[in-house]
Design goal:
The structure holds two protein chains of two kinds. By secondary structure, chain A is mostly helical. Chain A has seven helices and three strands, in the order H-H-H-H-H-H-H-E-E-E. The radius of gyration of chain B is 19 Å and the shape is globular. A seven-stranded mixed beta sheet of chain B has the order 3-2-1-11-12-13-14, covered by helices on one side. Classes of the chains: A mainly alpha, B alpha/beta. The interface between A and B is large, with 41 and 36 residues.
Chain lengths: 224, 311
């Protein structure tokens, strides 16, 4: 009888100790690949990795955007050094307006299509979310990334400013803090031309045109 | 009576320069290169103002010609009014005295800051400048350390000959900070280049405290990220720490005389928290197969740090 009772206690203790681990594992599952049939077919045809096809498609879409940007910049005053920051803002606004007019029908997902969004979530997951063993460089790196993201929230509270409207072609509000995007995250994402940058707004990732100060496109719930 | 009063007044007038000189540990030599270093400044709050005030007061005794900004120059909103509140007004007395500021971009900065003339970035995210013969600075954008920038850096370092080479950027390759710690990715990218080209000194911020790192592969590393923001008690001293100060707001003054670079770190209440010398051993030329530079000796009152593994 005592042996049975002991086994029940030990079994219960084991179950309790396993439960949090199981829960943690469930919470930290990486996003599953979501690749379209067309991309899979293309990958098979070209004997290529489907992810490489997705990233090449992203690059193509960024190139197309940059053609619009450069075309709009021809008719806009160039950004040049000035003592007056209002002039920098006015120049950004002028270019932003021209880009907006040139892609008036642009909508979320035109550049970061659903499968590109999925790829971005998968690229960000190992740097931001997935657990790393204690005492490893990965653990330290994640701590730093999380601290960077926490700073964004704190700064937003301190400074106030208008909330960022996640909308393609919207101007990024000048009185709202530009949140930091940890270099470790940037290292894992596809490189952008220097006129563009990534910024993390809450759990979302935006692509911002630095020279036009507009939101080019965004990945909702990029951090999972 | 009048004579006595006059005598006392004369004594006071004579004593003031002596008192001032006692404050400073830098040698104040004629013809030397004098500059200041501030970091993580752009808050516009009372702490930035207090450091700016002390920086201005220090210039009366130590006439530095320019100021290095190691990033996070404009926190939060970056409307035109923010440039005034977080830069132009706090440093107005220095700007009015034609002191030049040279900025690097931090992770909180909008890259369009590079077009703001008072930051002297020539519209570039990374750039180099030579304030005097024999000294060259390299400003880097450590948030976006891409291949293009690294190639540019290699070219510029190769062309810089036997000058003092001082790199400045935001993220510290070495740090004993609890919050961020060393940026090892950046270190992997930059350190071999710095060693090969003979970079002498690296100035960074990001961590909101002051830390002088023990020379690493012959390079002196300083973190000056508490010129407006402070993370009290955030330094967890490691084997890296030569001196750390996380109990107050700081800035740094520097004087280069020949092969010696004298530094002094002051708080917003003019208390000296660190001082010493970086000695450059010989004229360091870029050498293709160099693995380390001649030893750079740093002086100052080194804090005994408990041995903890280096991050």
């Amino acid at each position: 009888m005592n042996v049975i009772r002991l086994l029940v206690i030990v079994g219960g203790a084991c179950a309790l100790s396993i439960a949090p681990t199981a829960a943690q594992t469930a919470a930290s599952k990486p996003p599953k690949p979501n690749i379209s049939t067309a991309t899979k077919a293309k990958a098979a045809e070209e004997n290529a990795n489907p992810d490489a096809i997705v990233l090449a498609d992203f690059q193509k879409r960024i190139d197309a955007y940059m053609a619009v940007h450069k075309d709009a910049a021809k008719d806009a005053p160039p950004l040049k050094e000035t003592k007056n920051p209002a002039e920098i803002k006015a120049t950004q606004d002028a270019l932003g307006a021209k880009i907006r007019a040139a892609r008036a029908n642009a909508k979320q997902g035109d550049i970061v299509t659903p499968e590109i969004q999925n790829k971005f979530r998968r690229l960000m997951y190992p740097v931001v979310t997935s657990p790393a063993p204690q005492g490893t460089a990965g653990k330290e790196l994640k701590k730093d990334v999380k601290e960077g993201l926490k700073e964004n929230t704190e700064e937003r509270k301190e400074e106030g400013g208008k909330p960022v409207v996640l909308k393609v072609n919207a101007t990024y509000p000048n009185d709202t803090p530009l949140p930091t995007t940890p270099p470790q995250v940037l290292m894992n994402l596809p490189k952008l031309p220097e006129q563009l940058e990534y910024r993390i707004i809450g759990k979302n990732l935006i692509i911002r045109d630095v020279e036009g100060n507009i939101i080019v496109d965004f990945v909702p719930n990029a951090i999972q | 009576m009048r004579r006595s009063l006059l005598f006392v007044l004369m004594l006071l007038v004579l004593a003031i320069p002596a008192l001032v000189a006692q404050d400073l540990t830098v040698p104040l030599k004629n013809g030397s290169v004098k500059f200041a270093v501030i970091g993580d400044t752009g808050t516009g709050d009372k702490h930035q103002l207090a450091v700016a005030k002390q920086l201005t007061a220090t210039r009366a005794k130590f006439p530095f010609e320019f100021v290095i900004m190691v990033g996070d120059n404009i926190y939060g909103g970056n409307a035109a009014k923010d440039y005034d509140k977080k830069f132009a007004l706090p440093y107005k007395p220095l700007l009015d005295a034609n002191v030049k500021f040279y900025a690097a971009l931090g992770n909180h900065d909008d890259p369009s800051e590079r077009f703001y003339k008072p930051f002297n970035m020539n519209g570039e995210r990374y750039y180099t400048f030579k304030p005097a013969d024999g000294v060259r600075f390299f400003a880097l954008d450590s948030t976006y350390m891409d291949e293009k920038q690294l190639k540019w850096l290699d070219e510029q370092l190769a062309m810089s000959g036997s000058e003092w080479k001082i790199a400045f950027f935001h993220h510290p390759p070495y740090s004993s900070g609890e919050t961020h710690g060393s940026d090892e990715t950046l270190r992997t990218q930059l350190e071999p280049r710095f060693v090969k080209a003979g970079v002498n000194v690296v100035l960074t911020g990001h961590e909101h405290f002051y830390e002088r790192i023990k020379p690493q592969k012959g390079i002196a590393y300083f973190i000056t990220g508490s010129s407006a923001k402070l993370r009290e008690g955030n330094i967890s001293p490691t084997e890296l720490t030569a001196k750390g100060f996380d109990a107050g707001y700081t800035f740094m003054i520097v004087e280069i005389v020949g092969d010696d670079m004298y530094y002094q770190v002051l708080t917003d209440s003019a208390k000296t928290v660190d001082s010493g010398t970086v000695h450059r051993v010989g004229k360091v030329e870029p050498t293709p197969n160099r693995t380390s530079q001649p030893v750079v000796a740093t002086g100052g009152s080194d804090k005994k740090a408990p041995a903890k593994p280096v991050k």
